[in-house]
Amino acid sequence: MIFRIYWMFFQTGTHILSPDWAEGNLYAFLTFESVFVIVAIYQLTSRNVVRKVEKAIGVLKTMRIKENHNRVDSYAFVHIRLLIVLTFIGVSILGSAIYLVANKLVILGTTRHSSWYPYYDVIISFFCFYVHFLYIPIHVLIHSAIQKEIYIFNIELKESITSSSDSQNFTQKFEEIIEKFKNRQLFLQNFANSTMSRFSILLNFGGFLIYLAVLNASYNATVSNPNRPTLYMICNYFLWISTIIITIILLYPQTIIIESVQKTAKLLLSSRIIQENPNVYENSQIMIQRSEQNCHYNNVAHAFRITQKNIKRTFMLIALTVIVMKVTHKFVELGDDIGLLLEKVHNKMNIKSM
């Protein structure tokens, strides 16, 4: 995999800001991100994270007021989405590699040729897909399990507040609810924070690399190139979409968990019944402060927190960067055309002078 990264960066013979240059960068960054996916798989398996998550989820289910939430506990829809996404990613990653090896090309349009590299490249492409095929279900299911438990916690808390408000002895009743839920909240948030911290290396470095892959894929897909066959263009468009999907899968689940945790504070603060009882409000402060302040945030490239706003800002920045790259590429092409024109004029003047 490291050799493929080296080859795509230094051995393709492409010109900077050309579509072929962006395509080589895309393959390199996607492969580099796959290296950190392998590291994440090793960390999850060596530390037995999946088994610990299953055990913690089992404990949290015993803390529920209602043991079964059939609609929320069902993972059928998650499994269907995973099947569709993994199939699409597999077709996207392998499609371009198979096309190149079938035509014995390193990258379409490059001046470099190799009799053996396309076969090596398709093997590495399959391996990149395989590590994502192993990792993505684990990543999605772990985060889904945490998010479901927080969602159920918020539902049961809201129902308990509503039901206790009908009681004549509301203050005492609510203190019992707070006592019951604050211990459950502490266990739930500590479990969520410790689990999310396991993904810090992948999201820190892999998140940055997959953003760079999206940038190059976006540029490669949007720059016009009449010499590309239609089938190969379709493969490139699919790969562009796949990089965006991988980015969303890696980053968005943690933002959903954080928002669900913070929703507990909003739920308590928006309760009219709590606001009208000062003693009850004071007792609920520990849960409010915990949900607002006790959240684990992972970062991308040690630069910014993974939040929904920051993810949207980054995609906007990528779009603006692609526009700048396209404009720069047009100026470079225009400069080359002017240079050729001046050279032709100069040659004609020399011929006439002779």
From TrEMBL:
Keywords: Membrane, Transmembrane, Transmembrane helix. This is Gustatory receptor. InterPro entries: DUF267_CAE_spp. The chain crosses the membrane at residues 26-45, 80-102, 122-142, 199-219, 231-252. Pfam families: DUF267. PANTHER family: GUSTATORY RECEPTOR, SERPENTINE RECEPTOR, CLASS R. The keyword Transmembrane helix applies. The keyword Membrane applies. It comes from the Eukaryota. It comes from Caenorhabditis angaria.
